[in-house]
Amino acid sequence: MNTATATRPLTHAELNETLSAVRIPPCPSIVADVLREAQRDEPSMKVLSRIVASDVSMSAAAVKLANSPMFSPGSRVRSVQQAVNRLGINHILSVVVAVALRNTSSHLPADVMERFWSRASTLALAAGVLARGHVGISPDAAYTFALFQDAAVPVLMTTFPDYAALYTGAADHGYSLVQLEQEHFRCDHAVAGWLLARSWGLSDRIANAIRYHHDPEAYILPEKELPSDALALIAVSVIAEHVLGDYTHDAHAVGDRSFENAKTFLGVSDAEVDELHDTIAAALI
Q: Where is the HDOD domain (predicted)?
């Protein structure tokens, strides 16, 4: 989702209203286990491998990501242990959280969710690839943010019975999803996503980027409200989304203002965008 509407700091009352209206799913024990191990002074890759291997879906997702274009070419990994070693802690956490989130939305319309998660996964891979060329922007953080920037959409579908129709209507016609959400539900997936990220233990940088990724004024917000490292993640995702839109004909095409702001912030030229088209076409399409 990329259409934007003005964002301002939430008042205490508004935040409580959102918290009371939206049912944020509890963090699953397997996510808590991975977080606990990842936050140790010396995390054990063997322990992480054992946790991931305990879930068939997570095992398959880890191996698939380890063999994706985001990682250096070479021999294909075939075991969870190999995948964990290649991916590293941050990407393993992304895999575990992503699969856990998909599991919480298994009761939702399968066709809608398949398109949603396929789009999120493709965008995440594109953002990770693009971040490689920009000093100071972590590819794994770019991947994680792009994967979860819209993760509250299934949460809102679960909370509000008529949300799915609103979501698909916005997708089919290119309407502003955030504006429709605020009009109908008095909250939006950016705020709900921020709450979800905080509840599930994602970093403050990722949570802040999710909170403001639809804000048209994001590039002029003070550093204390939206740190530049979080803003960089938004910019990379916007450019990745713009590039992917040319291949997928996505109704949520990035607006010109958002795209130009992202290019300016990162110092990306039109020639570099053309090169990125070639990179994404070769790596992902």
A: 24-216
Biggest CA-to-CA distance, the chain: 54
How distant is the alpha carbon of residue 11 from its chain centre?
A: 25
3-state secondary structure 123-144: HHHHHHHHHCCCCCCCHHHHHH
State the average pLDDT over residues 232-239: 94
Residue 236 has pLDDT above 90, yes or no: yes
Asked whether the predicted pLDDT for residue 1 surpasses 90, the reply is no
Cα separation, 277 vs 281, in Å, equals 6
Which are the contacts of 159, defined by CB distance < 8 A and separation ≥ 6? 21, 22, 23
Q: Residue 239 has what pLDDT?
A: 92
pTM of the model: 0.85
Q: What is the pLDDT of residues 167-180, one digit of tens each?
A: 888 877 667 888 88
Q: How far apart are CA 123 and CA 113, in angstroms?
A: 15
DSSP string covering 162-226: THHHHHHHHHHHT--HHHHHHHHHS--HHHHHHHHHHHTT--HHHHHHHHHTT-TTGGGS-TTTS
Structural tokens at position 95: 């895999």
Angle at 141 between CA 23 and CA 127, to 5 degrees: 100
Rounded CA separation 144/123 (Å): 10
